[in-house]
Amino acid sequence: MELFPAIDLRAGAAVRLAQGDFGRQSDYGDPLALARRYAEAGARWVHVVDLDGARTGTAANRVQVLAIAAATPASVQAGGGVRSAPDAEELLGGGVARVVLGTAALSDPGLLGSLAERFPGQVAVGIDHRGGGADVAVDGWTRPSGTTLSEALARLDGLALAAVIVTAIEHDGVLSGPDIPGLEAVLGLCAHPVIASGGVRSVADLRALAALSGGGRGLAGVIVGRALVDGTLDVEEAVAACATSG
């Protein structure tokens, strides 16, 4: 299981939101310094999200995303406001290793299929849900899509995706622990590599995720945000915990 330290961008700075609420923001300063810190501590990936782009559909922090990709040895997985082929091309051409489509994956399945075919192994889908999978949120988690988690996963069948990133919004940014039962169910429903997101607070949480099994396989990765920036979990111990099998 791979560790993906999260760097969320708003107005050019690194921030964290509680449960996706733009009114509940914590500030963490220079995103480039944060990315370098994670890479120097042993993270092989960083997960970067343009929160402004996710909410509006127009990239607002792309300069910062590309600067991180250019200046850190870690591979960059980036999303937020990726709504067109030129968006994906600019990111991948600028050194980003993998792009993540969220809103566009639901609203424009033709775009998702085309990008997955053109850039094998470099396109992931982010599915962010509330209510135990009752509704997938879009536009930076500000709007319900009317689609359930299981319905969204079913639409991805047959696509050549690098990963599916699943976030339980109620768990995100509040250090409440990950959605273990929900992730186990996702592993049984989804044939793609699954990356978990939301709620990780400790080494014990990471070990529980590393031991998780569903559909005969485990998680491919886990995104960790607040626990790393707040210092309740350090990157070195997180990498080691991700490498365990329980």
Account of the protein in words:
This protein is an alpha/beta fold and 246 residues long. Helix content is 35%, strand content 26%. It contains 11 helices and 12 strands. Strands 1-4-5-6-7-10-11-12 form an 8-stranded parallel β-barrel, surrounded by 7 helices. A hairpin with a 2-residue loop joins strand 2 and strand 3. Helix 1 packs parallel to helix 3 and helix 9 packs parallel to helix 11. The radius of gyration is 16 Å and the shape is globular. The model has no long low-confidence stretch (mean pLDDT 94).
User: What is the strand tally?
Assistant: 12
Low-confidence stretches: none
CATH homologous superfamily caption: Aldolase class I
What does the main sheet amount to? 8 strands, parallel, barrel
What is the average of the pLDDT values? 94
Return the string of H and E elements.
Answer: EEEHEHHEHEHHEEEHEHEHEHH
Classification by helices and strands: alpha/beta
**Any idea of the CATH class?**
Alpha Beta
Strand portion: 25-35%
Mass-distribution shape: globular
N- to C-terminal distance: 11 Å
> How many separate structural domains?
1
Instruction: Give, in spatial order, the strands making up the sheet with the most strands.
Output: 1-4-5-6-7-10-11-12
